[in-house]
Write a structure and sequence with these properties.
The structure holds 2 protein chains of 2 kinds.
Chain A lengths: L3 H28 L6 H8 L3 H30 L3 H27 L2
Chain B lengths: L6 E9 L4 E9 L6 H11 L19 E4 L2 E4 L5 H4 L6 E4 L6 E3 L2 E2 L2 H9 L22 H7 L9 H5 L1 H5 L6 H11 L7 H7 L14 H5 L6 H16 L8
Parallel strand pairs in B: 1-5
Antiparallel strand pairs in B: 1-2, 3-4, 3-5, 6-7
Helix pairs in contact in B: 3-7, 7-10
The chains are: A mainly alpha, B alpha+beta.
The structure holds iron/sulfur cluster (SF4) (2 copies) and FE2/S2 (inorganic) cluster (FES).
The site of one iron/sulfur cluster (SF4) has 14 residues of chain B, from helix 9 and helix 10.
């Protein structure tokens, strides 16, 4: 139960996430050398517009990508009613964006 | 394949319109025996109520498909010796994903309705008075169409497809394969309507690309590859900068 537009959106968000995932992984591997502390992470992120945009967009792309995938899986495996699946996956989208942006807010602003 | 007394034990999943049950039959083995031979022997010598379909017996009509030891195959061209190991039994059941009418006969109406939904029919652009267009043998689109035209409508791919099993509405590999041949047929004028039909939420984007269809197609077609072509073409049409599959 996925049409061409949702399918395209899911692929485009995947493509958009590729450089973000690569940067995130490389950064983690590099940063963890010599130990990892909260101060070190917050020192990098607090007040940084760049990291706010980086992780803010990452959260939104991941939430869209995941919610579309969840909708298909829910329909094929759990609830064969596409309306219920659409509402549930929209709910998931909002929750993921909310949780993700809250975490970004916490490391950038607080 | 052969037991000591030269018979083969065959179990068949049956349905009489109300209940499902299983029957078991001892069938004499023969050289070069096909599964269709086995089923026919059972109907003629053991149980005349057994319902099944066949017509051509040579792999052309597509009517004899059934599940043979759990895998969808054309029974007229499946040799018993290829599917049964020494001493083991043969289990036959109807195709999946279609309502069972009786025993091994399934109702293929939804299968064929989906061909129509996918605009899997030729839309002519010329009349009989126009000259026949010459199609060059090295034409790229024609080469793509040629790869998928030998479908015999047997429903084997449709039975093999797990997405059809999970999603009643999904158009399925055969109808989409047919749509892809027509998209590449330069004489056809229905491409726009067809690409819209296969872009719907029952369309080609539901395919998980696991190639169950291509694995089992008895004519060695590759519906999954045709579906990949449809996905590519429909997505290119959605993007502002692309409108052609080249
Ligand atoms: S490749 Fe696609 S159409 Fe073929 S069996 Fe798998 S899901 Fe079905
Ligand atoms: S594509 Fe192959 S398996 Fe599917 S209906 Fe046609 S011949 Fe049968
Ligand atoms: S009987 Fe015609 S394909 Fe098997």
């Amino acid at each position: 139960m996925i049409d061409a537009r949702l399918y395209l959106l899911q692929r485009l968000t995947a493509i958009a996430m590729l450089p973000l995932i690569a940067t995130h992984l490389i950064l983690m591997i590099v940063a963890i050398n010599g130990g990892l502390t909260a101060e070190e992470i917050l020192g990098r992120t607090q007040g940084s517009v760049g990291w706010a945009l980086f992780y803010g967009s990452f959260v939104i792309f991941a939430a869209i990508h995941g919610a579309i995938g969840f909708r298909t899986i829910a329909y094929e495996w759990l609830i064969p009613n596409i309306r219920i699946c659409s509402v549930a996956s929209f709910g998931l989208l909002i929750v993921l964006i909310g949780l993700g942006l809250r975490a970004v807010y916490a490391v950038i602003v607080l | 394949m052969k037991t000591k007394d030269q018979t083969l034990t065959v179990s068949i999943d049956r349905f009489d319109g109300t209940s499902h049950y299983q029957t078991t039959h001892d069938v004499p083995t023969r050289d070069n025996q096909t599964v269709l031979d086995v089923v026919t022997w059972i109907q003629q010598h053991d149980d005349p109520t057994l319902s099944y379909r066949f017509a051509c017996r040579v792999g052309m009509c597509g009517s004899c498909a059934m599940n043979i030891n759990g895998e969808p195959k054309w029974s007229c061209r499946t040799h018993v010796s290829k599917v049964v190991d020494a001493g083991s039994a043969l289990r036959i059941s109807p195709l999946r994903n279609m309502p069972i009418l009786r025993d091994l006969s399934v109702d293929m109406t939804p299968f064929f309705d989906k061909w129509t939904q996918a605009v899997g029919y030729f839309v002519p652009t010329q009349t009989k008075d126009d000259p026949l267009p010459a199609i060059k043998s090295d034409d790229r689109d024609r080469a793509k169409a040629n790869q998928s035209i030998e479908c015999i409508n047997c429903g084997i791919c449709y039975s093999a497809c797990d997405v059809v099993a999970a999603n009643d509405a999904y158009l399925g590999p055969a109808a989409l394969n047919r749509a892809w041949t027509l998209v590449n047929d330069e004489r056809d004028g229905g491409a726009k309507e067809r690409l819209e039909a296969v872009s719907s939420d029952a369309g080609c984007h539901n395919c998980h690309s696991q190639h169950g269809c291509s694995t089992y197609c008895p004519n060695l077609l590759a519906p999954a590859t045709s579906i990949a072509g449809l996905k590519r073409q429909t997505l290119l049409n959605l993007l502002p900068w692309g409108s052609h599959d080249d």
